[in-house]
Amino acid sequence: MSKTLFDKVWDTHVVKKIEGGPDVLFIDRHLIHEVTSPVAFLGLKTRGIKVLYPERTFATADHNTPTINQHLPVADPLSAKQLKALETNSNEYGISYWGLGHQKNGIVHVVGPEYGITQPGATIVCGDSHTSTHGAFGAIAFGIGTSEVEMVLSTQCIMQPKAKSMRINVTGKLGFGVTPKDVALFIISKLTTSGATGYFVEYAGEVFENMSMEGRMTVCNLSIEMGARGGMIAPDKTTFEYVKGREFTPKGEAWDKAMAYWLTLKTDADATFDKELTFDGSTIEPMITYGTNPGMGMGISNHIPDAEDVEGGVTTYEKSLKYMGFSEGDSIVGKPVDFVFVGSCTNGRIEDFRAFASLVKGRKKAANVTAWLVPGSHIVEAQIKEEGLLDIFIEAGFTLRQPGCSACLAMNDDKIPAGKYAVSTSNRNFEGRQGPGARTMLASPLVAAAAAVTGVVTDPRTLIHELELV
Ligand SMILES: CC(C)[C@H](C(=O)O)[C@@H](O)C(=O)O
Ligand code: SF4
């Protein structure tokens, strides 16, 4: 029988099928962070259970960590407590722990791939919704709840009903200034935030085939924002080149064996999906959100839609615009910007900083803008320095912070003040997401750069020539 990529990875991991119930799935890699693991460990302790495969579990501190002065003790008592708990639990159960100040520390969805923990054909879970990021490698990766974290720690398995399948094809070539973030925001704007609920999505087509691993991670990361359980892309040459030689990837004969499996990981030509959608990539513009969910996005040259033209309740829509301080029919270009945030597991990778640098190079940060450039990991931070991007940033009036989730969700010191506008490369623009009362416009690193140097929402294509992009 023909199979999709998802079927192939799923089927090889089923330990047990429960008649009329969920499948019991073996989990290859389990990532944990300080927010969703403490209660799971407490459960283990109470029941006197061990972690079954500590070598398959990896811990990093990211959500509650400060992004300056990381050498100093964490000032916020609650954050300090969470971080300490992760350290103590990891040490007690023999789990690799990459805490604050550790060379390998960074956002869980950035460091996993960097160290080769993320591999094609694997099953990967984490008590975190953006675990979908790892699907970029052709892995089945999804977020789980705290009680499931406990289940995986103790059994290395999880009970899961098999999701429905959806394939999203994006054909053709992307226009100048259009990045993977724009592709994802475009898809979410078409599907809405619940359009893929109950589905596991495979992204296919020329646009994804030509995309870098960083770009694919950005797209898969955002799958969750349209309600999908996860997203994945068939592994190819780009994937194998990225994965090869990383610390936790197979070496020698084991590599050849792994490759033999990985090469089978594509959807069979005659396999069918429960739902299939196709978009023309050449029609996508640089995107920006104007509302309070990631589906409220549009091409940057557009005007904010009228309530009657959008799906969903008019009241919710109006409430959303009111929160943002925007009106129907407004042009988004020219809207004031107070903060620019480049970072997160969506856009905190080297390519994102290259894109930002290519636009701010030779320009100056706008005086009214506070910019937080936050690398997703120490590897990204080091690369920014090595490639001379930091020099470009400093010359243009920017500084670089230290790795962490930062203003993506403001569980740390990096909070956008109430009422202020932020152009943010992160993934969620919910009310208060970046700080109580903060107003978020989600966009790509290029759009963020254009805002950072002009002080208002600006179409990056008006500032930069095609050839200037790295
Ligand atoms: C804290 C964590 C549970 C949460 C998630 O699951 O996504 C966070 O990472 C987020 O981005 O909102
Ligand atoms: S960077 Fe943001 S989305 Fe990613 S794990 Fe951290 S808080 Fe969640």
Poorly predicted parts: none
Number of domains: 3
Count of DSSP E strands? 18
By CATH, the topology of the largest domain is Aconitase, domain 3
CATH homologous superfamily assignment of the largest domain: Aconitase, domain 3
Please give the radius of gyration in angstroms: 21 Å
Explain what this protein looks like in three dimensions.
The protein has 470 residues and is of the alpha/beta class. It folds into 3 domains: 5-160 and 237-259, Aconitase, domain 3 (2-Layer Sandwich); 164-235 and 266-283, Aconitase, Domain 2; 287-468, 2-Layer Sandwich (Aconitase, domain 3). 31% of the residues lie in helices and 16% in strands. It has 16 helices and 18 strands. It has helices at residues 5-13, 38-47, 77-93, 108-114, 146-155, 180-191, 206-209, 213-221, 237-243, 252-262, 314-324, 344-347, 350-360, 378-386, 389-395, 445-454; strands at 14-17, 23-26, 29-32, 57-60, 96-98, 123-126, 140-143, 157-160, 164-171, 199-204, 230-232, 275-280, 287-289, 297-299, 339-342, 370-373, 421-424, 439-442. It has a 5-stranded parallel β-sheet, sandwiched between helices. Strands 11-10-9-12 form a 4-stranded parallel β-sheet. Helix 2 packs across helix 5 (146-155), helix 6 runs parallel beside helix 8 (213-221) and helix 13 packs parallel to helix 16. The N and C termini lie far apart (44 Å). Bound molecules: 3-isopropylmalic acid and iron/sulfur cluster (SF4). Iron/sulfur cluster (SF4) binds at residues 62-63, 107, 109, 128, 130, 344-345, 405, 408-409, 426-427.
